[in-house]
Amino acid sequence: MSLTGKGMQGRHAFRRLVRAQKKAFGPDVDMSRVAMQEIRKKFYEHAHVTDEQKMQELMQHVDDAESFMRNNIAQGHLSPETGRYRTLS
After folding, report:
1. How many other β-carbons are positioned within 10 Å of the β-carbon of residue 22?
2. Pick from 13, 32, 12: which is nearest to 73 by CA?
3. Where do transmembrane segments lie in this chain (predicted)?
């Protein structure tokens, strides 16, 4: 089973990362584009992995990346009136 092949696990992992990047970067088109490029690049690099242990390691990386994007990234907007940044909702 490969990450970009017919494996449901790989497709599910890819969709989770896409959803996480959309939540993390929202309206920031440039960062969303770069994040998607990186996600695609990593999945294509590992498209032919068949070793079960390596698959588990890759799935752990997906879990970590998803968690990081969902919990550790905040997009900010500079308020011209106050000169302070506020997070976008």
Report:
1. 13
2. 32
3. none
